[in-house]
TrEMBL record:
Keywords: Decarboxylase, Lyase, Magnesium, Metal-binding, Thiamine pyrophosphate. Homotetramer. This is pyruvate decarboxylase. Belongs to the TPP enzyme family. It catalyses: a 2-oxocarboxylate + H(+) = an aldehyde + CO2. GO terms for cellular component: cytosol. One of its GO terms (biological process) is aromatic amino acid family catabolic process to alcohol via Ehrlich pathway.
């Protein structure tokens, strides 16, 4: 499971997964950027810190994985926008038909969709990050 922003820094690892014939089920959570670092009340108020790096260039993630695949090995990709689609995608990825495939599931989530716990955690991290360093022990 990886977020869209993190995947943009590590996408080339999919090529390594394919080269070694591995067959994980990968979920890419596409929420259009770093909600964890810049979320609050789920209205984009800053929780940890905000900056232009929190806004990522939109990619066609399944298209990128298909391009890396380039017809070599076994690959199955899908895009998911609803809970029903997610249930169907998981059923397909875990079926015998895809047992040997790298299954790449792109899950679209609203940018501001976050839990109360995430907001609390973000607030605590922001507080810790804003403290001056203490003396070394």
């Amino acid at each position: 499971m990886v977020g869209d922003g993190s995947f943009q820094m590590t996408a080339q690892e999919v090529s390594t997964i394919m080269r070694f014939g591995l067959n994980p089920i990968m979920f890419l959570i596409n929420n259009d950027g770093y909600t964890i670092e810049a979320s609050g009340g789920c209205t984009r108020a800053v929780q940890i810190h905000d900056g232009p790096y929190n806004r990522v260039q939109p990619w066609n993630y399944t298209g990128l994985v298909e391009a890396l695949h380039n017809g070599h090995g076994k690959l199955w990709t899908t895009k998911v926008r609803t809970e029903e689609d997610l249930v169907a995608a998981i059923a397909a990825a875990t079926s015998p038909a895809h047992a040997d495939d790298l299954c790449f599931i792109e899950v679209f989530v609203d940018r501001d969709d976050c839990s109360k716990e995430l907001l609390e955690w973000g607030s605590r991290v922001a507080s810790a990050n804003s403290r001056k360093p203490g003396p070394a022990h």
